[in-house]
Specification:
Layout: H1 4-7, H2 12-33, H3 44-63, H4 75-92, E1 94-96, E2 99-105, E3 108-110, H5 112-129, H6 138-156, H7 161-177, H8 182-194, H9 196-200, H10 205-215, H11 226-238, H12 249-252, H13 264-297, H14 301-325, H15 343-361
Antiparallel strand pairs: 1-2, 2-3
Length: 368
């Protein structure tokens, strides 16, 4: 049994906000998919997502019995497993939507790149734990970039530009907290911007198309620009209070593609309006704020790095997904955390929340 003195240290605000986001997710997924379910059951997606949400919540509370610090012992092993998973995708992965990102296990499709983000956070926290305050020169940070760069390139090879960029967001957040020299960090940012024209030539044609239609979706209104145009129409048509659940024309009539995954926020904007979208964003703001607070309250450096990596990952996901659906960022295929349909994404995010709870619960030494 978990000691009651530890239970009193649980972050009930994070638990409440997470449950609220998952509850809204199930309602919106049900609204978005009840007219185009792959089976006779109109709420197949909701039942599947809800079942895995419950399983993960049970696993989270079971994991609270273990001290998160023990994860540091498995950093190198997890990193190796991560590389094996990403390499396996290249050889036995299933292709869909122009990318080879999934491994089929019976009726379940798993996306290793989703799990690799959390694995990378744990492994990188283990590496940076002993290097905090020692990242003063390019020679000091080069091994860190190589360490993250290998899985980054494997994910980019799938191709999955969105997830590979999440690796960069995690890296920047964690090395910043690890005390990297600020001037060195700014120099690297400048170099990255300068190298963007070269990076452009390594992008796939569809990725280049997404970036060009971001500037003007009407260049290809029935192709690459279709998602952005329909998403903006959906959000705009919701106005202040929305059209009501199960009443959104763009999503219900299938004008809005991927309405239960990447573009679920557009469904929220259409059916719940500005007010509903603002409430959802407020829930995310509270969740991210709690992540920052947990990072600051951690009892040691490893916990701070873990919480920072998780919060960086969630922040990047929310900013890019919402920006993508609103037409102010390019379409990258990044899901909205805890909201978009997807077993791999949901599992990764809920386990991440579980780690945050574990860190906060043990934020100070408790006398037994």
């Amino acid at each position: 049994m978990l000691d009651r003195r530890l239970l009193r240290n649980l972050d009930f605000i994070t638990i409440f906000v997470t449950c609220m986001i998952v509850a809204v997710s199930l309602i919106i997924i049900g609204s978005a998919t009840h007219v185009n379910s792959p089976s006779e059951d109109r709420y197949w997606y909701v039942q599947r997502q809800g079942m895995f949400a419950l399983v993960n919540i049970v696993l989270i509370f079971a994991s609270l019995h273990f001290d998160y610090k023990s994860l540091s012992r498995y950093g190198n092993a997890l990193y190796a497993v991560n590389l094996v998973m990403l390499l396996a995708v290249m050889f036995i992965g299933q292709s869909a939507l122009g990318a080879q990102r999934w491994i089929q296990i019976g009726s379940l499709s798993l996306q290793p790149s989703e799990f690799s983000k959390l694995i990378m956070i744990i492994a990188l926290a283990n590496v940076l734990d002993t290097r905090t305050g020692k990242l003063n020169t390019f020679k000091d940070v080069l091994p860190i970039f190589i360490y993250v760069g290998i899985p980054f390139l494997l994910v980019l090879r799938q191709p999955d530009l969105g997830t590979s960029l999440v690796f960069m967001a995690i890296l920047v957040g964690m090395i910043f907290v690890a005390g990297i020299n600020t001037r060195l960090l700014m120099t690297m940012f400048g170099a990255a911007i300068a190298l963007m024209p070269i990076f452009w030539h390594f992008l796939k044609d569809y990725q280049k198309k997404r970036l060009t239609v971001f500037i003007d979706p009407n260049i290809d209104p029935l192709g690459s620009g279709y998602h952005i145009i329909q998403s903006k129409i959906a959000i705009g048509s919701g106005m202040i209070f929305g059209k009501g659940l199960f009443s959104g024309t763009q999503s219900q009539l299938n004008f809005l593609p991927e309405n239960h995954t990447d573009f679920i926020f557009a469904v929220i904007g259409e059916e719940l309006g500005f007010v509903g979208a603002a409430i959802v964003l407020l829930l995310y703001l509270v969740l991210l704020y709690r992540g920052i607070k947990i990072a600051g309250a951690a009892r040691e450096n490893f916990g701070t790095l873990l919480a920072t990596g998780i919060t960086s990952m969630l922040t990047f996901h929310v900013l890019v997904n919402v920006g993508m659906t609103a037409g102010i960022m390019p379409v990258t295929g990044i899901p909205l955390p805890l909201m978009s349909y997807g077993v791999s994404s949901l599992t990764t995010n809920l386990i991440s929340i579980g780690i945050l709870l574990n860190i906060y619960m043990r934020r100070q030494k408790i006398m037994f």
